[in-house]
Amino acid sequence: xQRAKIRHLEQRFVSLGGAMGAVAESFGLAWAxxxxxxxxxxxxxxALAANDGSASIKAAEQLGNLRxxxxxxxxxxxxxxxxxxxxAQLQHARSEISEALEGLEALTRLQPSIERANLCGSxxxxxxxxxxxxxxxxxxxxxxxxxxxxxxxAESLARATNYAALFYPxxxxxxxxxxxxxxxxxxxxxxxxxxxxxxxSLSIRARDEPDFWSFIGMIELRTxxxxxxxxxxAARAGIEHxxxxxxxxxxxxxxxxxxxxxxxxxxxxxxxRAAGPERQAANQLLARVRGYVRExxx
Length: 298
Fold this sequence. Notes:
Elements (H helix, E strand, L loop, with lengths): L1 H14 L5 H13 L3 H13 L7 H23 L7 H24 L3 H20 L3 H25 L5 H14 L11 H17 L3 H17 L3 H18 L3 H21 L2 H21 L2
């Protein structure tokens, strides 16, 4: 229904000339809100190309973000088909994300912000997932290193400008650290002061703007600490209890799908290098999160 309304408005706008960047940007936002990613990308392109220059810098941010997102989605959907992914499909995804990153990194250098650094981190993560699907471990690791660096920049900016926003980039940086650093002999666990800062940031969010993400952030922090301490087997029951409680309050498929994406990024890597009860705990916890997505209809 909403998409039909957008298409009707599109036709009227195009018939009037369709050259206003700000209006084209609004269409991009509308399509993005209704999950029409390809249509949103096209409108954001038109917004940035408009001669009146009225599109905001946000349009460039979202164009890069959505290009990276769509590229990974296309690979994941193709991977579910009977025919194996082709080299051309993987190369196209890699090129799309790389071009998106060029734009996002340029914006970040021009005018750094927490959001732009977060978007760079997210795009690097999507590139890492494509390289994992392509079975290119060296390139996957490079992408995760860059993901970690981008989220570290966002974390640093949050400390300087908006402490309450610290937990999001910090948790993502920690996830990357668990993958690329935790298996190194010289890695000595997370910095205790940083763990305290992330917990405080989450507590501020839970107090002032309580939502699903503040509570799932608390659970993810406990999970990452347990993995770093190699005590996931001991912590699993408590983590699953808190997940169960959260699911009874919030069961939106889109939210739990995002939780599953993050769990699928971290837990299998830990399972690969762990053994015995720790490996079993990682696999069981991932299966538990998949179960929430199924129950939610995702």
